[in-house]
Automatic annotation (TrEMBL):
Positions of transmembrane segments: none
Entry annotated with the keyword Chloroplast: no
Protein name: Peroxynitrite isomerase
Cofactor note: Binds 1 heme b group per subunit, that coordinates a highly solvent-exposed Fe(III) atom.
Organism: Nocardioides imazamoxiresistens
Domain commentary: Forms a 10-stranded antiparallel beta-barrel structure able to accommodate a hydrophobic ligand in its interior. In fact, this fold hosts the heme group, which is located in a wide surface cleft.
Alphabetical list of CDD domains matching this protein: lipocalin_heme-bd-THAP4-like (cd07828)
PANTHER family with a match to the protein in the record: PEROXYNITRITE ISOMERASE THAP4 (PTHR15854:SF4), THAP4 PROTEIN (PTHR15854)
Catalytic activity: peroxynitrite = nitrate
Extent of motif GXWXGXG: 21-27
Domain THAP4-like heme-binding: from-to ranges: 13-166
Length: 167
């Protein structure tokens, strides 16, 4: 599906412009403290001309036949293109329905965004997440991503990955 740059796109958002819109698809998850799982997911990136995108993601756990079993994670925040640093510098501010908030920092260029956690906060009772790395890529017009997580005493390792198509 062709993608057109919006007329009011902030110049600093050029390296992340390909992410704008709604993406849907399927993914997989695994971690030492949980059973492997499959999920469906929707990511939405919107903007209003300022140097950031509003981001919202929701997922649902599916069974082997792809049927929805239950609701999954929800996260929302802002993907910010830094205007006072090197071109392509980005930061992501996220809040999760699980009681975790995160600040991520990294770079965007050539259809790829790589970010790592800079700070993590959580409410009492939330999972102890101590670090993360996210990689988003535009591969043949699809959004592929991988999320590595360090949590509950485990070192940074693969947690979820997905392939999403532009809706």
């Amino acid at each position: 599906m062709p993608f057109e740059l919006p007329d009011n796109l902030h110049p600093a958002c050029g390296p992340i412009a390909w992410m704008l819109g709604t993406w849907r698809g399927n993914g997989h998850g695994n971690y030492p403290s949980i059973e492997p799982f499959q999920f469906g997911q929707e990511l939405i990136f919107t903007h209003d001309g300022r140097p950031f995108f509003h981001y919202m993601a929701r997922s649902w756990v599916v069974d082997e036949q792809g049927e929805k079993v239950r609701e999954g994670a929800i996260e929302t925040g802002f993907l910010r293109a830094k205007t006072d640093g090197e071109p392509g510098e980005v930061e992501l501010l996220l809040a999760h329905n699980t009681g975790i908030v995160e600040i991520w920092a990294g770079n965007a260029a050539d259809g790829k965004v790589e970010i790592v956690t800079d700070a993590i906060g959580r409410v009492e009772g939330a999972q102890e997440v101590t670090g993360g790395k996210r990689l988003y890529g535009n591969v043949e017009g699809e959004l592929l991503y991988a999320y590595d997580m360090a949590a509950e005493g485990h070192e940074l390792q693969s947690h979820t990955w997905a392939r999403l198509q532009r809706a």
